[in-house]
User: Fold this.
Amino acid sequence: MKKYVFIILFILLLSSCNKIKVIEENNRESHIVVNKELNRADSDTMEKFMNFNHIEQTPVDSLIKKYPPLWDKTFILGKKDGFITEFRVGLLKQFTQKEIRSRDIKIREVTWASSDEENLTVWFEEKDHKWLPVEHLIWDKNAEF
Assistant:
């Protein structure tokens, strides 16, 4: 019986890995290419490059429509799925441990492919029914957290 359970779990694991790969392949054409130095008004350029000012000024739902993310998840910081891990350590620059313990900070974690080698994760905090960017991380796709 244990053998069958193991086989079923293994198949489910493989199928979820394939779904992630398919999502990444489908999103190759819609990378968010981040360039911190870019500051041009050329609209053709803005289609290809996005700087962090653009992220701050554009509602997250509009960004997601234009650039489908690899993943988009919402959680309460410090609880269940919202624990501060090595991946999310940058959020400790924005919130103290006391703030995390004393209030329900709703975070939206959105990750896009930013190149063939890197991903961009932006953490948004919900304030007054709006998602405001509070931290970001550009990381190598091969990184393990």
